[in-house]
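Minimal example, chain plus adenosine monophosphate.
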Amino acid sequence: MFSQFALHERLLKAVAALNFEEPTPVQAAAIPLALQGRDLRVTAKTGSGKTAAFVLPVLNRLVDLKQKRVEIRALVLLPTRELAQQTLKEIERFAQFTFIKAGMITGGEDFKEQAAMLRKVPDILVGTPGRMLEQLNAGNLKLEHVQVVVLDEADRMLDMGFSEDVERLCGECPNREQTLLFSATTGGAGLRDMIGKVLKDPEHLMLNTVSQLNDGTRQQIITADHNQHKEQIIQWLLANETYQKAIIFTNTRVMADRIYGHLVAKDIKAFVLHGDKDQKDRKLAIERLKQGGAKVLVATDVAARGLDVDGLDLVINFDMPRSGDEYVHRIGRTGRAGNEGLAVSLICHGDWNLMSSIERYLKQSFERRVIKEVKGTYTGPKKVKASGKAAGVKKKKADKKGDKKVVAKRKPTAKPKPNAPLASADGLAPLKRRKPAPTAE
Ligand code: AMP
């Protein structure tokens, strides 16, 4: 029951109006501590209800503000435009019975309009660090009166190269009393560094270990011979699976466009979302998907970050994501808030080791699925090691005279896919982090 929390009655009224009955585990753990004013570092998966876990305490802090609205009191930094839009909506829904106003600043939107919005001074400002800094540098943004800073999906902000911007913005809030940091993963040294710099004596809440992720989602692999074969499998899945909405992930924009083209050619209503698309296209794609005008979205990872679309119950990994954490983020699109979902990864020869490393990272074994109608010849490596990876042909020692010829004649062993980052030696660590990119894709 949300009434167990010391939340203002106007907020409890909104919670009831939104039909939130039971707090999710992250809400149950974080809300009371956040209401006490503690700094928090929360590890919680996408779809766990983490937004409300910080929005409600932030609103509670501001709800009784008697002063006339003259300054920004709360700052929410997050990695992408879509996540910013969703978070703003969530804030507005919870603030509907209060006088609290929120505003949003992200790249890809009109700078002057944003400056005009800032002149009206929202109580809560949500946005991506890059544009926020630009507005700050232009003298349009004053943060001295910020009491609480939220860093949402902090791990992803670091991956995208925003760490300096985030630290700078935190430094612009000298009077902040509380900082709440959320990440889907435990992150690495970069996140630890940021935590050390921006949080004061934080309480750590570990709401998920990776192995507990996505209980509501079945995770399958289907082996494939090559990319065209993968496309056939996708068409079969889209034609035969029962799903409301599907998302197909690719590692590259080119592949996303290609798959999209094939789907359209087959009269499948789809949208494509990646970094080459402008903001209008992105909004349209998300709206169409939400409203049901299109059932299928083809997307690259960063473009799909923070998407929260009801009824998204089928995730297809055309390529295996480049790390275990990325896999978790992708699969976090489905099975949200207790719904059932299906995640299917298409595995060619070159994807196998990455896939088996991700299985080990998640401490899960994906279901092997064969579809008779589109069965290929590749069914996985002939031999696998105890780790689950393909066992290669052992190199013969070429130290004796005369052995050289034998080595030269030996057939090449499994060639790594170009650009495919290799799995870590033990398969446990995040396999490879995306290179920092300056902006959201
Ligand atoms: P989030 O992890 O914050 O993106 O939340 C995922 C989805 O779950 C959003 O659509 C929320 O509105 C919804 N949600 C969050 N908390 C609850 C709750 N306690 N009861 C019902 N739905 C919730």
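Residues 20, 22-24, 27, 46-52, 308, 336-337 surround adenosine monophosphate (CB under 6 Å). The chain has two domains: 2-208, 212-374.
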